[in-house]
Design a protein that fits this description.
The protein has 534 residues and is α/β, with parallel strands linked by helices. It folds into 3 domains: 220 residues, 3-Layer(aba) Sandwich (Rossmann fold); 190 residues, Glucose-6-phosphate isomerase like protein, domain 1 (Rossmann fold, 3-Layer(aba) Sandwich); 38 residues, Orthogonal Bundle (Phosphoglucose isomerase, C-terminal domain). 47% of the residues lie in helices and 11% in strands. The strands form 4 sheets. A 6-stranded mixed β-sheet has the order 1-2-15-14-12-13, sandwiched between helices. Bound molecules: 6-O-phosphono-beta-D-fructofuranose.
Length: 534
């Protein structure tokens, strides 16, 4: 299967993307419109033959039955023997989704109602801290218990009408210090967000927050709530059951912002807007489940990714939102894609025959243009770019700025595809008065090779519902790529070793234990720190 893709990719190597547009219908044919969004992948070297190779690969992998297996609660997370049912967190109350014979939807909606009641009480001031109504909510979590709600709270700022929200994730004391120093403990609520309730960074920060609160608040525990699936640990920590919002082990951390981990979003924008967010995601689920392959947006986003990474060997993927409020989307997608598909063993235990997930990175446009686009345009590596852009911003009085933003985004994909030839560069330099060898030398620096692939995702405006659609789109893309790669996208064993070693190193760093048995480099690094911290 991969050999066939490789030969398709080899055949595409001499194609100029711009030449493909001699087919007048290309832009239409190589794009997907769904749910008010437009995904254009025509500025790539994908052709009918490569697409049919890729869709054949989906059939070979049993994609359709894997997709049904995911939606219907089969334990597709085989290394942890768990279902993968984040889609159930956004199901309609009347839906029936069974896991181990039990319909999980009623419990999801019961938790949603509890979240709604709690967030309403914070928003209307009926929940009181020692100093009165809650003005600030701090979410303490890391990874999936931070990136999703943090990203979404920034993305949905225009809808924010609840208490202020803050996020603390890093175990570096600087993070919690910076956040807490501006807050009044008497009117602050702390949400301890941790699926396992054992993550060292989160539990350390939670303890710091409790100590901070205890200095001024008589009953600090009363201003704490927990978002977790480990009810035993939350009880041990002294958080009463009525302020614990639980979820099941079939929700992976990086897929968890649709339920209790999204409580900060609900507090910020209100339960009705949060419901719109879930509805947007659910619409994407229905689309993914039912649309034919070539009209299926998550499938086509995934096939474009596979074409670039496993076909053409482009090992990174730049996510470039021309939407300032999606500034944390690249970081969110880094976890979603790299923790899910950064694997090297297939489901059955054999090594993967091809590279797995790409390095995902990015920054909002137009900022990135003035930083790393130089390399994207003229560097030696080809970096597929994924642009995202809203037709309309929220700042209606600044529509002229949005026009500039749009023009910049479209200009980048055009420039990447078309480039600028040596002949054009020469005539531009000649027009500036250069001649001879100097003209030649200067012109070469001004050549853009072009033929660099990009895709563009357009949507009307970044509303709660649209954000739900966008995130669900990427979640399903990860699923499709994972199925093609034959890996388990839903475990994350690769994060464990470092955690274990950190626990073992902590007493060595503190001086309680000596460093016998450690490698010479680590011993040298510890020694330097010990000497220089005093
Ligand atoms: O270390 C990785 C990880 O397990 C992520 O998958 C997860 O999102 C994050 O840590 C936080 O975990 P928890 O929510 O259990 O604190």
């Amino acid at each position: 299967m991969w050999n066939k893709l490789k030969s398709e990719a080899n055949a595409a190597e001499n194609i100029r993307i711009s030449d493909l547009f001699s087919e007048t219908a290309r832009a239409n044919k190589f794009s997907v419109s769904a749910l008010g969004m437009l995904f254009d992948y025509s500025k790539t070297t994908l052709r009918e033959s490569s697409l049919s190779c890729l869709t054949d690969m989906l059939a070979t992998c049993g994609f359709q039955s894997r997709r049904e297996a995911m939606f219907s609660g089969v334990h597709i997370n085989e290394t942890e023997d768990r279902a993968v049912l984040h889609t159930a967190l956004r199901a309609n109350a009347a839906d029936k989704i069974t896991e181990d014979g039990e319909n999980v939807v009623p419990a999801v909606h019961k938790t949603l109602s509890r979240m709604q009641a709690f967030s309403n009480s914070l928003r209307n001031g009926s929940f009181q801290g020692q100093g009165g109504a809650i003005t600030d909510v701090v979410n303490i979590g890391i990874g999936g218990s931070d990136l999703g709600p943090a990203m979404a709270c920034i993305a949905l700022k225009p809808y924010h009408d609840g208490p202020r929200t803050h996020f603390v994730s890093n175990v570096d004391g600087a993070h919690i210090h910076e956040v807490l120093q501006d807050l009044d403990p008497e009117t602050t609520l702390i949400l301890v967000a941790s699926k396992t309730f054992t993550t060292i960074e989160t539990m350390t920060n939670a303890q710091t927050a409790r100590d901070w609160m205890a200095r001024d608040v008589r009953d600090p525990g009363a201003q704490f709530a927990a978002l977790s699936s480990n009810l035993e640990k939350t009880a041990e920590w002294g958080i009463p059951a009525e302020r614990v919002f639980g979820f099941e082990d079939w929700v992976g951390g990086r897929y968890s912002l649709w339920g209790p981990i999204g409580l900060t979003i609900m507090i910020a924008i209100g339960a009705d807007r949060f419901a719109e967010f879930l509805t947007g995601a659910r619409e994407m689920d229905d689309h993914f489940r039912t649309a034919p392959l070539l009209e299926n947006m998550p499938v086509m986003l995934a096939l474009t990714g596979i074409w670039h990474n496993q076909g053409l060997g482009y090992g990174t993927r730049a996510v470039l939102p021309y939407d300032q409020r999606l500034q944390r989307l690249p970081a969110y997608l880094q976890q979603l894609e790299m923790e899910s598909n950064g694997k090297s063993v297939c489901m059955g235990g054999s090594d993967t025959p091809v590279h797995t997930g790409p390095v995902v990175w990015g920054e909002p446009g137009t900022n990135g243009q003035h930083a790393f686009y130089q390399l994207i345009h003229q560097g030696t590596r080809v970096i597929p770019c994924e642009f995202l852009l809203a037709a309309k911003g929220h700042e209606e009085d600044l529509a002229h700025q949005h026009e500039l933003l749009v023009a910049n985004c479209l200009a980048q994909s055009e420039a990447l595809m078309l480039g600028r030839s040596l002949d054009v560069a020469r005539s531009r330099m000649a027009a500036k008065g250069f001649e001879g060898a100097e003209l030649e030398r200067q012109a070469r620096h001004r050549v853009f090779p072009g033929n660099r692939p990009s895709t563009t995702l357009l949507y009307p405006q970044l509303t709660p519902s649209m954000l739900g659609k966008i995130i669900a789109l990427y979640e399903h893309r990860v699923f499709v790529e994972g199925v093609l790669l034959g890996i388990n996208s839903y475990d994350q064993w690769g994060v464990e070793l470092g955690k274990e070693l950190a626990v073992a190193l902590q007493p060595i760093v503190s001086g309680a234990e000596d460093s016998t048995g450690k490698d010479a480099s680590t011993i040298g690094l510890v020694d330097y720190i010990k000497v220089n911290r005093n």
